């Protein structure tokens, strides 16, 4: 698999859940990953989908799945998503007392390992753990619901992570999630993000595939300074 310089990952949280397979296929040739938000009504107040839906969807598309677990006790549940064929499985730092051990479990189960940092969590305590991870997801909202307003101050964490990744020569995607749209993606890219989750900005658009392409163009322009 060739590695694209930037990743755009539509979040199906903003899709029509009664037509999930069609909604996924609508972005199949434009997106890099499909972002799947799993919420358990405990770690966050919202409740979405779980393993059976991910297993069924896996058969409906070629897109790599970027599973974002907003759940308690991820050590119990996360490897099941790797077993189901997820490309990347991200769990929250706030929900796990041994993130490095779970990252190892995920890699042995065959997926990439991702660490998510919620709005109110500082990044510094986690920087030294990053060599154990493939993706770092920095929330640009409070995790739990789509359609919230982007919080630009949270990009300071992206800048800190990017500096750390560069100075340590780490191979790590820095992903942003929450309020990413045409008017915010450039600042996130300029701060050092190279993977972009977008729910409302993609599935709220008349043409979701075109919305993905537009977001990618804006992020590329901000990264290359073109
Ligand atoms: C919220 C989820 C996001 C959500 C983003 O906790 O993690 O992935 O779908 O939605 P938008 O892009 O609408 O902010
Ligand atoms: Zn998400």
Question: How would you sum up this structure, described in words?
Answer:
- With 226 residues, this protein is α/β, with parallel strands linked by helices.
- It contains eight helices and eight strands.
- The two termini are 27 Å apart.
- The relative contact order is 0.17.
- Bound molecules: D-xylitol-5-phosphate and zinc ion (ZN).
Which characteristics define this entry?
single chain; alpha/beta; 8 strands; 34% helix; binds zinc ion
Task: Give a quick summary of the entry.
By secondary structure, this protein is α/β, with parallel strands linked by helices.
Helix content bin: 25-40%
Largest sheet descriptor: 8 strands, parallel
Mean pLDDT equals 97
Specify the overall morphology: globular
How much of the residues is beta strand, in percent?
A: 15-25%
Number of DSSP-assigned strands: 8
Oligomer: single chain
Termini separation comes to 27 Å
Tally of contiguous helical segments: 8
**Small molecules bound in the structure, each named once:** D-xylitol-5-phosphate, zinc ion
Main-sheet strand order equals: 1-8-7-6-5-4-3-2
- SS class: alpha/beta
Task: Evaluate the radius of gyration.
Answer: 16 Å
Low-confidence stretches: none
H-E string: EHEHEHEHEEHEHEHH
């Amino acid at each position: 698999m060739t590695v694209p310089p930037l990743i755009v990952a539509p979040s199906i949280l903003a899709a029509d859940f009664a037509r999930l397979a069609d909604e996924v296929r609508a972005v199949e040739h434009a997106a890099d990953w499909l972002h799947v938000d799993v919420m358990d009504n405990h770690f966050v107040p919202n409740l979405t989908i779980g393993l059976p839906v991910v297993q069924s969807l896996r058969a409906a598309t070629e897109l790599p799945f970027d599973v974002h677990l907003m759940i308690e006790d991820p050590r119990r549940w996360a490897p099941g998503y790797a077993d189901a064929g997820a490309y990347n499985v991200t769990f929250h730092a706030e929900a796990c007392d041994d993130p490095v051990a779970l990252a190892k479990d995920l890699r042995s189960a065959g997926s990439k390992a991702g660490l998510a940092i919620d709005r109110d969590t500082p990044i510094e305590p986690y920087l030294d753990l990053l060599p154990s991870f493939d993706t770092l997801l920095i929330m640009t909202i409070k995790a739990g619901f789509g359609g919230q307003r982007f919080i630009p101050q949270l990009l300071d964490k992206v800048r800190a992570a990017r500096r750390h990744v560069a100075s340590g020569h780490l191979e790590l995607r820095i992903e942003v999630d929450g309020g990413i749209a045409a008017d915010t993606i450039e600042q996130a890219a300029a701060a050092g993000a190279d993977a972009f989750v977008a729910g409302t900005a993609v599935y709220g658009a008349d043409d979701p595939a075109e919305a993905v392409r537009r977001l990618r163009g804006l992020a590329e322009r901000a990264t290359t300074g073109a």
